[in-house]
Amino acid sequence: MFEKRTGALLTQQLIDWGVDHVYGMPGDSINELIDDLRKRKDEIEFLQVRHEETGALSAAAYAKLTGKLGVTMGIAGPGAIHLLNGLYDAKADGAPVLAIVGQVHSEEIGTGAFQEINLERLFDDVSVFNQRAETQEQLPDLLDQAVKEAYANKGVSVLIVPDDLFAEKQSDKTRRTSGEFFKPEIFPGQENLNEARRLIEQAEKPLILAGQGTKSSANELIAFAETIKAPIIMSLLGKGIIPDNHPYCLGQHGQIGTKPAYHAMKETDLLILVGTQFPYRDFLPEQVKAVQIDREPAHLGKHYPITTGLAGDSRETLKALTDSITPVESRKYLSYYQEKMKDWRIAVQEEKRREEDPLHAPQVMYELEKHLKPGAVVSGDVGNVTVWLTRFLHLVNQKFLISGWLGTMGSGLPGAIAAQKAHPEKQVVGVSGDGGFSMVMHDFVTAVKYDLPIKMVVLNNSKIGMIKYEQEQMGHLNYATNLGEVDFAKFAEACGAEGYRIESYEELGTKMKQAFLSDKPVLIDVAIEDQAPLPGKIDYTSAVNYSKYIVKEFFESGTLDLPDLKKSIQRLI
């Protein structure tokens, strides 16, 4: 009977599952498996990152973007701990990820050996599957099950392996399970469909709130909205699924959203939730009938008290509803908010097209739009940059990546790396603030090493801008939000990439154009003026607290730091 190294068998299994690359960093408790991956590097690439957090964030981003399994690796002890942030991002946004984590040698487990930690306990909360192999014979079956659980539960599977087991030999016939995942087809019951149809036909002001669950059903979502004449609000994770300039689109909702979306939500008499678990209850209407479509039955009514739930795939469910509903010819509610949205877009365009210094983020978004190609992927970071991207960067035929539910700073660069790896033929743009980028900037070298021609835009205001504004909104004085000045363009050059520093409006167009003509990794460092990311609708409590901050700042320093009062007044009413 022919025997192979267990690591070689696992490598073949990963290839059989369609895995063509893995993110990680070599180390003593995974070096045996690393050697097996080396021997198959033409079929499955090991992307060496500079920090395991980047590897896990990249694996999560890859899974979000493609729906395929993202794979990351780390050693016992410190490497495993570094994986956690990226794995929690995958858990929060429902991305299938496999983490293969090394452990100290089998005979050392439980002895307090160097770098030994309780990995099962460490990964217990983040995972849908979390097992440590005790024998090499277990590993092929455990790997199959780990992949199936990640796909079935849209979450993180962790396979913990003492490094010595990878080197043990066993029969290549040891595998006893099937290496294939069979995706279930889910469709709502007819009674629930009939109830949903009745509610929709009775509504005078129906409103659709759609999210990432509509990624594969954009056409059906638009057809449904056109049939019932209902405006569409997209969640943050839903940005880019339908064009931002679509006549039925009211943009995003919540603190990052638009004023028309805010008021339309307050006025609706039927909320239709499609493929979203929108968590911000304060931004949803009170005591309104609601229909929810989600392929996960446990998600129905989880964050909002719905009238009826439709457990099913959004594409087939929307199609069934559209086919069964009598089309509406016109609706005043829709027409009214379409006009409001036109006014909002005009105001946004005016802000974006200002030809003045100092530079502000909306001006950068306007220039960036000129260079985005159809099919491009935009990987956004978390912070003020999230507001600038969602509100001011209009996507028409591009995909959008971000850390949604976890909202972790530092997600922009790993997302860009993963997107370029997933789609080497497409344009990939990452957009971060200086705070988020500096958390993971070491891995810009990874993009250079693997010749990934990402274009990384850093909005550099030398502050943790979102936290600064939050402190002010709470009525507090700013503390520990200044970061100091860094020339990231020089850093990019030191990494072996191209770097462009933009400090004025006059430089913006020319240098941005130069950067996007390059076929190399590029970092575009844009010095922007600090600007409060005002919500689409400002509530009175926030306004009062901001006034408290202004008074405190005046008495502390004798200076006033006022936001744009015209914009503030417009968004207060």
From TrEMBL:
<protein>
    <submittedName>
        <fullName>Pyruvate oxidase</fullName>
        <ecNumber>1.2.3.3</ecNumber>
    </submittedName>
</protein>
<dbReference type="InterPro" id="IPR012000">
    <property type="entry name" value="Thiamin_PyroP_enz_cen_dom"/>
</dbReference>
<comment type="similarity">
    <text>Belongs to the TPP enzyme family.</text>
</comment>
<dbReference type="InterPro" id="IPR000399">
    <property type="entry name" value="TPP-bd_CS"/>
</dbReference>
<keyword id="KW-0560">Oxidoreductase</keyword>
<dbReference type="InterPro" id="IPR012001">
    <property type="entry name" value="Thiamin_PyroP_enz_TPP-bd_dom"/>
</dbReference>
<dbReference type="InterPro" id="IPR029061">
    <property type="entry name" value="THDP-binding"/>
</dbReference>
<feature type="domain" description="Thiamine pyrophosphate enzyme central">
    <location>
        <begin position="194"/>
        <end position="321"/>
    </location>
</feature>
<feature type="domain" description="Thiamine pyrophosphate enzyme TPP-binding">
    <location>
        <begin position="381"/>
        <end position="526"/>
    </location>
</feature>
<dbReference type="InterPro" id="IPR011766">
    <property type="entry name" value="TPP_enzyme_TPP-bd"/>
</dbReference>
<feature type="domain" description="Thiamine pyrophosphate enzyme N-terminal TPP-binding">
    <location>
        <begin position="6"/>
        <end position="118"/>
    </location>
</feature>
<keyword id="KW-0786">Thiamine pyrophosphate</keyword>
<keyword id="KW-0670">Pyruvate</keyword>
<dbReference type="GO" id="GO:0047112">
    <property type="term" value="F:pyruvate oxidase activity"/>
</dbReference>
<dbReference type="Pfam" id="PF00205">
    <property type="entry name" value="TPP_enzyme_M"/>
</dbReference>
<dbReference type="InterPro" id="IPR047212">
    <property type="entry name" value="TPP_POXB-like"/>
</dbReference>
<dbReference type="Pfam" id="PF02776">
    <property type="entry name" value="TPP_enzyme_N"/>
</dbReference>
<dbReference type="InterPro" id="IPR047210">
    <property type="entry name" value="TPP_PYR_POXB-like"/>
</dbReference>
<dbReference type="Pfam" id="PF02775">
    <property type="entry name" value="TPP_enzyme_C"/>
</dbReference>
<dbReference type="GO" id="GO:0030976">
    <property type="term" value="F:thiamine pyrophosphate binding"/>
</dbReference>
<dbReference type="GO" id="GO:0000287">
    <property type="term" value="F:magnesium ion binding"/>
</dbReference>
<dbReference type="InterPro" id="IPR029035">
    <property type="entry name" value="DHS-like_NAD/FAD-binding_dom"/>
</dbReference>
<dbReference type="InterPro" id="IPR047211">
    <property type="entry name" value="POXB-like"/>
</dbReference>
